[in-house]
Amino acid sequence: MYISPAAVQSRGLSLFPRSLLLDGVSNRVSRIPPPRSFSVPHPFSASLHAARAPPPPLSLSSVLHTVARPPRSAPAPPLSPPLPTMLTPEHAWPLQSVLVATGLAMSPLVASVGWAMRSGRFSNALPRTSQMAADVPPFVARARAAHANNLETLGLYAGGMAAGVAAGVPPGVLGRLATSYVVGRAAYNVLYVGGEAWCRTGGYARSAVYATLCLGPCLRLWAAAAGEAAALGKSV
């Protein structure tokens, strides 16, 4: 049977039952996803929460660890790099030769002081007086003279060696001159204190040794240092 829409409206009928309409609406509503909820944290909420939080409980081990822990010391400053130096291992002998030359300069005193002590004439209050008397044996007088001669060139040699090192004279040259001076001083002491009667040179052998092996190396040290300084001045 056909029922027109107007008849339906006049009679208050509906094409769809009320229950079906409500079920459809409820299904559509249930399919709509719920709105997402979000909240912006307050900038002071974390600090306030931390302030309200109770402190952690203390234990005996944590207290002992805090007490026994040593205070932190300031870190050590970094080590500065070593300063540049002109010295090398080859300079060891040239510098040591100054000490050897000093010992050789004092060695003639062993003969003169030993004689004064053996003869009972040595006095610590006036040690030089007993060794310079007119009646001393000849070898004691020669020992005193050899000691004085060594001291005359010791300062010249030490200064020349220092000047050579500072001017940059090659270590090989310094080593050869140091060996010549030490050998010359040892030979000079033996010839002067021991006497030259056994070789009958009349003192000329001692003088030759002094000129070539004692005074010569000192002058050559200063000459080499001056030459290096002059060459450095020309290159600047």
UniProtKB/TrEMBL annotation:
This is Uncharacterized protein.
